[in-house]
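Quick one: structure tokens for this chain, please?
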Amino acid sequence: YGMSNRKSSAVMKSYYLLTLLLVFTSGILPLKAQTTFREQTLGIATNIIGYANLLTLNAEATYKVKDQISIHAGVKYNPFTFNKGEENQMQNRSSILHIGVRYWTWHTNSGWFAGGGAEFGYFNYGGIISKETHEGWRAGVNITAGYSLMLSRHFNFEFGAGLFTGYRNSKRYACPRCGATLGNDKKLYVAPNNLLAQMVYLF
């Protein structure tokens, strides 16, 4: 079992489009880079904790709107299955898009921040804590708070954590590889989200 080809195709197209946007941004934005920390308006980031989550690939673009306001758009993608076909198979496959805004208490990309945004994605996870596997999609909003530490003119390191609340529609299976259906889940829920240990490059 797995995501339908149509769903997978749509998510992959979104992932590729955002990746191209990040590459395009990284190529042209240095032309707009200024001479001080405060004048830097654009950046790209990746969350190290994401890679510890069964190698979840992730990237985010950020843009300074005002001195204390920035907007963010990102993608998380995990296509990997470990020990495929074996008794201990496990996976946390996902394709997630998010967009949001942050308020900075001192100055954009410096110090404490709080933010929120919208998130949508597909998932297929199981075999990690238990053999029970969930496959489906979710949509909702998230809130995040954290701190951005300036390391140099171009590099920041961000710490943070957040909560997600939204709607989940998924199927439950007895194990990652057997395909025996246990039932359907359609519910509103709240869960921890956006645990950040994130490296940021500013242009």
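Residues 5-28 form the longest helix (24 residues).
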